[in-house]
Amino acid sequence: MSKEFTIGKTKIGGNNPCFIVAEIGINFNGKYENALKLIDAAAHAKCNAVKFQLFFAKDMYPPAAGDDASGKGRKKNIYQIVKDAELPKTWIPKLKKYANKKRLEFFCTVCEEKGADILKSYGMDAFKFASYEITHVPLLRYVAKFQKPIIFSCGAAQIQEIAQALDVFQEEKNKKIALLHCIAHYGAPVSSLNLSVVAMLKTAFPNIVIGYSDHSEDAVVAPRAAVALGAKIIEKHITLDKKMPGPDHFFALEPGELALMVKTIRNTERDIKKGVAIEIPKELLGSSERKAYASETVPRNFAQRCLFAIEDIRQGEKFTKKNIRILRPGNLKRGLEPKYYEVLVKGYRATRDVKKYESITWSNVLTI
């Protein structure tokens, strides 16, 4: 692993300035013009990069996964939310070219192998994994083989799950890795951020770049504290207007707030170089233990991946890459962890009939 690497033309980690990522995500609300305006906002604020998310509803949730209960507003079917928020793949090269013209690095969150191949074909300089993919070992391994920089968040994760992911990257000899502390609670109160974890991760994993992905609604308090604790990457959701419809707008930063955050981070870095002591409010520090906190229990159970049948499987039939998939369960019964996927498709059979979109558990797996 390396404490410094390069994404595009930008050096990250080491003694370099904090790498500031404007997370556009799904906040373009299906409109190409909004995506361009958000890139403009990131460039005007002097961020280093913009990030979108590439996913496909059918590869993320079963259709009957249920309603999303996170954030604010009325509940809505999670499958439909994801379907409505899909980023058209044909936009990617145009958005990348536009962002690069604005002197911004461009990359995307990747959620499945198909998306990884699309991004690779467009010459992506880096890949991001969301917190809920941290146990998706087959995907981590697949993307690690590209030998491109990887940034991954660890919201709702146990420390051993982080170590498992890092082991995968090490096995594939990918040394360009950054790990972001975050809390998988959207609109997280500052008292729940546990920023002491940033310092802990630096000690636990001294040979990788450590950063922070902030889901609080505040523009400056948490980013400033995280930088003071040693974060070399700050990621923050952005929006054109907090009142726009969609689950990720209300806690995102509007353009003026984004500019203020960047300015605050750069001022904090200057203060640190001058030897100025940065006072961090105790309520932000919290616990240094990286575990699934109480506020993360629901999203962890809802979105951390597991195994499902994607077509009817008869008793005695072999599990294959065509009949099982690694999906987020939503409100459905959880199945086996993704790390068992490669094991099952090597010859294991169903002990009974398994219905389409039923979770795969040890009770319906026949030993070879």
Secondary structure class reads alpha/beta
Evaluate the radius of gyration. 20 Å
The CATH architecture classification of the largest domain is Alpha-Beta Barrel
Average predicted confidence as pLDDT: 96
What portion of the residues fall into strands of 2 or more residues?
15-25%
Question: What does the secondary structure layout of this molecule look like, with pairings?
Answer:
Blueprint: E1 4-7, E2 10-13, E3 19-25, H1 32-44, E4 49-54, E5 67-68, E6 76-77, H2 78-84, H3 92-101, E7 105-110, H4 113-121, E8 127-129, H5 137-144, E9 150-153, H6 159-171, E10 177-181, H7 196-204, E11 209-214, H8 221-228, E12 233-237, H9 255-273, H10 282-285, H11 297-303, E13 306-309, E14 324-327, H12 341-344, E15 349-350, E16 365-366
Parallel strand pairs: 3-4, 3-12, 4-7, 7-8, 8-9, 9-10, 10-11, 11-12
Antiparallel strand pairs: 1-2, 5-6, 13-14, 15-16
Helix pairs in contact: 5-6, 8-9
Give a quick set of tags describing it.
368 residues, alpha/beta, TIM Barrel, Type Iii Antifreeze Protein Isoform Hplc 12, eight-stranded parallel barrel, two-stranded antiparallel sheet, 12 helices, globular
Describe the fold and architecture.
The chain has helices at residues 32-44, 78-84, 92-101, 113-121, 137-144, 159-171, 196-204, 221-228, 255-273, 282-285, 297-303, 341-344; strands at 4-7, 10-13, 19-25, 49-54, 67-68, 76-77, 105-110, 127-129, 150-153, 177-181, 209-214, 233-237, 306-309, 324-327, 349-350, 365-366. The chain is of the alpha/beta class and 368 residues long. The chain folds into two domains: 4-285, Alpha-Beta Barrel (TIM Barrel); 305-366, Antifreeze-like/N-acetylneuraminic acid synthase C-terminal domain (Type Iii Antifreeze Protein Isoform Hplc 12), CATH 3.90.1210. Helix 7 (196-204) links the parallel strand 10 and strand 11. The radius of gyration is 20 Å and the shape is globular.
